[in-house]
Amino acid sequence: MSDEMKSCPKCDCPYGYELKEDFYACPECSHEWDIKEEVEESGLIVKDINGKILQNGDSVIVIKDLPVKGAPKPVKAGTKVKNIRLRDAEHDIDCKIKGFGQMGLKSEFVKKA
Length: 113
Prior knowledge:
Blueprint: E1 17-20, E2 23-25, E3 32-34, H1 35-42, E4 46-47, E5 53-54, E6 60-62, E7 80-81, E8 85-86, E9 93-97, E10 101-105, E11 110-112
Antiparallel strand pairs: 1-2, 2-3, 4-5, 6-7, 6-11, 8-9, 9-10
């Protein structure tokens, strides 16, 4: 079993825990879901730099320094970003990065943690 938590697709609680392989449960709303079905339902497939499929709630690592418009410093390579959200846009990952706040990343600049 994994120690990784996934966000609940029903209530967005970030504390979804793994019951068995690829099957998660939410402690707040008691919703249970299969990660494989979640990917199929959304129809959105986002892959990291190594070709691994990313899912909502995954953690990723930034692979190169990324300049941020309006910020004095870039997001450094090696920065771990937790609890990502996928979307259908040019910047296909929504996330919060400590010290920068809410932002969008391109999947080509991250690898799955």
